[in-house]
Amino acid sequence: MHPSRRSQAELFTATTNFPGTTAPGRLPPPIPAAKLQQRPSAAASSASCSIHALLIALLTIALVSLAFLAVNSYTLPLHYNSCITAAPQAEELPNVYHSPEVFRLNYAEMEAKFKVYVYPDGDASTFYQTPRKLTGKYASEGYFFQNIRESRFRTDDPNQADLFFIPVSCHKMRGKGTSYENMTIIVHNYVGMLMSKYPFWNRTLGADHFFVTCHDVGIRATEGVPLLVKNSIRAVCSPSYNVGFIPHKDVALPQILQPFALPAGGNDIENRTILGFWAGHRNSRIRVELADTWENDTELQISNNRISRATGHLVYQKKFYRTKYCICPGGSQVNSARIADSIHYGCIPGENAILLCSLILILSDYYDLPFNDILDWQKFSLILEEGEVKQLKQLLKGISPEKFVSLHQSVVQVQKHFQWNSPPIRYDAFHMVMYDLWLRRHAIKY
Fold this sequence. Notes:
It is a single-pass type II membrane protein. By secondary structure, the protein is of the alpha/beta class. Helix content is 43%, strand content 10%.
């Protein structure tokens, strides 16, 4: 063999002849695939285990962090940006309501949602839309007409309305000398026009409609329109059963003589040296019966408020400042401004079961007090039985000083509810009437 070739063959044999080979000069047999993948598979498995361990560690850290934050959220105060305003605290109300918390929640809902549609029909220069005046003992009716236009409750969209206001003023008719018969005809024709022109009355037969009247002529004029009295809500100053007042449907409108002659009475207990003051009519049966006993009594006094008002003197009003208890008899049709007078001047109203109305004219078997379903009158007035009137002085003297102080403080707290304003303000007489209407807004759909 050629030397160069031999050396190459020998070199080949030397390099390939190692343990595990089959024969010199031959290539080794192929390695099985399982053996080729043995070492890479072990490496991959080791890397995979490392990744899983890392993920588990990260997840554990995340869970621990979340648990730590959750626990600290109950113990550490939250810090807000200084420009964020905290939510207002719940308003604290005095304990003169049947349920202060219910009143607070319902009143807030009323302010946010209540809508009233005022029918735009009727000539404002005659008997519709505008009040006759805002003074005198029938000012409550006039103020309501004025306030409803100034308030947030009025809506021009009848489809958004909860209630519908019928703006007919019997007081203006009375001022123009209209007879009762003609008043009834005017009211009947006006309501009939609303029924034919609009679909709203017929949806509920008038159950979601209301009207306001404070003068006793309004009661007489509307009595001739039975569907109005029976179906719609009446806000009246004569809330007695003998005129068909229905407490769960109708609203007792407070009769308030505005403007008040003097400022409101406050915490002036030390100045109240007169035990009781009877602001009754000169010809009332009870006044005549008790005049001999009280005429010269320094503790219980009688005054005829008609004379003092007519002559313009302030004796009547000033006497309220010196009196502990004011006896509030009713007048014609049971309506009277004496209750609001007593409350304004800080004098505790003294009443029998019907505000002494039956004692004077035997007009009423029941008298529904203004806002009776809202205010707890037991907290700021005295309610006596009819037969207890002759023992009134002894009963009043038997009231403890602590009881009187509690009653007087409650009277001061409700004064704002018996005040009309223009424009209306929160919690005044207008808003309390609207709240009473709000409670009656759920009409039955026929």
